[in-house]
Amino acid sequence: MTSNLNPYISFDGNAREAMEFYRSALGGDLTVSTFGDMGDTGPAADKVMHSQLETPTGFHLMAADTPPGMEYRPGQNISISISGPAADAANLRRYWEALSAGGTITVPLEKQPWGDEMGACVDRYGIAWLVDIGTADSGQ
């Protein structure tokens, strides 16, 4: 498996509804994980931490609800996600280093509760990026 480049949209509490709409419009399989699935028992527990739509035509769309404490900014609510398997970790780390250089790291590239390494940054041109390195068994 190779690395993938995907749009990643942030929503203000209606990510599930939006992604179900995109599934009805584009077809495919939708997976949804909530903050509660990762152990959050607070008011955001039922909100979408991560969702992914994969269509038979090869479209990949990812989305989440903006976490509590983070500002939702319409018009600036999309990132580009690069994800891949642990076997491609060296390339993914190289992409991370290059994209975050001269920019702002918003989430350090480190192990996350779901097992993958993930980091987020805004590059020197103001573009938001996510880099996710899957675990050996995650299928990323």
TrEMBL record:
CDD domains: PhnB_like (cd06588)
SUPFAM superfamilies registered for this protein in UniProt: Glyoxalase/Bleomycin resistance protein/Dihydroxybiphenyl dioxygenase
A Pfam family of this chain: 3-dmu-9_3-mt
First and last residue of the signal peptide: none
Domain PhnB-like: 6-130
InterPro entries: Glyas_Bleomycin-R_OHBP_Dase (IPR029068), PhnB-like (IPR028973)
UniProt protein name: VOC family protein
Gene: phnB
